[in-house]
Write a structure and sequence with these properties.
The chain has 422 residues and is α/β, with parallel strands linked by helices. It is 37% helix and 26% strand.
Length: 422
């Protein structure tokens, strides 16, 4: 005597990756107070009905949970509804059970990440940014919070548009709203090992080393004026540098030690380097400043490569001259390519960070160029602009959340400093 046939379940569609448009499905949505065991209880109830899970999304905001589970429809949908409603009642949660046809829709082509950063992030600003996204015909598939202090950083997963199109649409709105917006393709490159190439003065550190040295020569004001003009792109960088260095003639070489001791890193600089080094990133600094300072910075922070100008020193004093060729705008881009080749990555895997006109070639050469608290002309030309003072904000653009940073630090026995010093 043959065994009884097993009950037939709905035949899945031949569409790869799950149920197709002709398959009956059920969407179960629960809302209520978050507590341990909610997800497992709901899934156990669904398991008893013999359904397949097609999609799951869950978020928790201030202790309130929203859980959505899309499953194949059983023969007895009414029975499933009764059991899920019972389970939700025991959990003191609200539930909605909706029967339909088809799997969760396929996300549109052209997937990008849109990072929105504000300090604070006003609701009106976020509404304006999401409104511009909708106007392009793109869809927001998912929203994640990457950080809540010292800035608020939100990552929007968007589909249905090209990064270049969306970037152009959002740039003007971000400026109007006073927030930072970065648009990046949602591809594997965002998760791969990368090389970070940074400017030093007013990027990795606060202030300009040449102006600190000029204070020892009594000409800080004059040097600062030339520096500003050069960073705005109004003066040829090499000529401006030689003019400024000439004013340092006669300064004792020991002033370099005093300047180094007085350097303050940008807030978040140590955090950014520490976290990304754990993930296998490599770091380089390329500076129009001076190797006598940048080499020490590289050694202190564990930075892999450094390139800068060398001040000539004779008999313990600066001569007012540079040794060798000047590291200028073009030289920074050349250094970036050389470092990438040495690491063994393409320039598309390089992230460049800078603030001045002499960083523009470097920013445009890299796969991701970030203008950090930059001059207006640099902000307008760069792919991404960050205008908050925290260098570790770059981590949020790479999909690393503040919670992940703090958890990794805690596991390593590192006490995360207060936000303004991290």
């Amino acid at each position: 005597m043959s065994e009884p046939a097993a009950p037939r379940r709905p035949e899945p569609s031949a569409v790869p990756g799950g149920a197709g448009p002709t398959t009956d499905t059920v969407l179960v949505t629960l809302t209520g107070r978050d507590r341990p065991g909610v997800t497992s209880s709901v899934l156990a109830t669904l398991a008893a009905a013999g359904v397949d899970v097609l999609d799951v999304e869950q978020i928790v905001i201030r202790g309130r949970m929203v859980l959505g589970v899309l499953v194949t429809a059983p023969h007895d949908v009414a029975g499933l509804r009764t059991e899920v409603t019972r389970a939700a009642g025991e959990l003191e949660m609200q539930v909605d059970v909706e029967q339909g046809t088809g799997d969760n829709r396929r996300r549109g082509e052209g997937r990008v990440h849109v990072s929105v950063i504000g300090a604070p992030l006003r609701a009106g600003a976020l509404a304006a940014i999401t409104g511009r996204i909708a106007e392009t015909g793109a869809n927001i598939d998912r929203i994640e919070r990457m950080a809540r202090y010292p800035v608020t950083a939100i990552d929007l997963h968007v589909s249905g548009t090209a990064p270049e199109h969306l970037r152009a649409a959002l740039a003007a709105e971000a400026a109007r709203q006073g927030v930072d917006v970065a648009v990046q393709p949602a591809d594997l490159l965002r998760r791969g090992m990368r090389l970070i190439v940074m400017d030093v003065d007013s990027t990795l550190i606060q202030g300009e080393v040449i102006e600190m040295l000029a204070a020892h020569a009594g000409c800080e004001r004059e040097v600062a004026e030339v520096t500003e003009a050069a960073m705005r792109g109004e003066l040829d960088f090499e000529e401006s540098l030689r003019q400024r260095v000439a004013r340092l003639e006669g300064v004792e070489a020991s002033a370099l030690d005093a300047v180094y001791e007085g350097i303050r890193l940008a807030p978040g600089a140590r955090t950014m380097v520490r976290v990304l080094k754990r993930l296998g990133y490599r770091f380089a600094i390329v500076s129009g400043g001076f190797s006598q300072v940048t080499d020490r910075l590289a050694a202190e922070l564990g930075i892999d490569f450094a390139r800068a100008n060398e001040l000539e020193i004779v008999d313990g004093r600066l001569t007012g001259r540079i040794v060798g060729p000047v590291v200028d705008r073009a030289g920074k881009a050349v250094a970036l390519r050389q470092f990438a080749a040495e690491v063994g990555v393409s320039v598309e895997s390089v992230i460049a960070i800078g603030d001045g006109a002499n960083d523009l070639d470097m920013l445009s050469t890299a796969g991701l160029g970030i203008a950090f608290n930059a001059k207006p002309a640099v902000r307008e030309a760069a792919e991404v602009a960050v205008n908050v003072p925290y260098l570790d904000t770059i981590l949020y653009l790479l999909g690393i959340s503040r919670e992940e940073i703090e958890a990794a630090d805690a596991a390593a026995g590192f006490v995360t400093p207060s936000p303004d010093l991290s």
